Amino acid sequence: MKLQVKVQMDVEQVTREIAALGDAGEEAAKEVLNAFAVRVVNEAKPLTPVEPIDGGDLRESVRAISARKGRTGVLGVTVMAGGAPLKAKLEATKHRYNVVAAVQHEDMSLKHTSGGPKFIERPFLRAVVQVPNELLAALDARKP
Description:
Shape: elongated
Number of helices: 7
């Protein structure tokens, strides 16, 4: 599952400012993205369903992967759930550990005793609106 959100801002201006600051600009952007991801993780964990099938391992698998440049040179950060952290718990069951997180996140018809669907998407959408201003402020703070 991949969720991509585009935030409207003057991307060319931000790109120019990051480039003008060199390594300091890229580090500022990484810091802002990493802080954003931590906020999303901290808000997402309590919203993550805990079901008998995983005993809370899905909740514990919610994590951020530090900001980095992709193959295309675009800087990004990842917040995810599931994957290898669920493998040991679910390997012996007939449930596919690599599908459980996606189903729990996307299936709006599931009834949960705790948490619910869209447990990453909801905090992501609440927090992402702050990122452009935080990024511009971080860049301004590093200007000579």
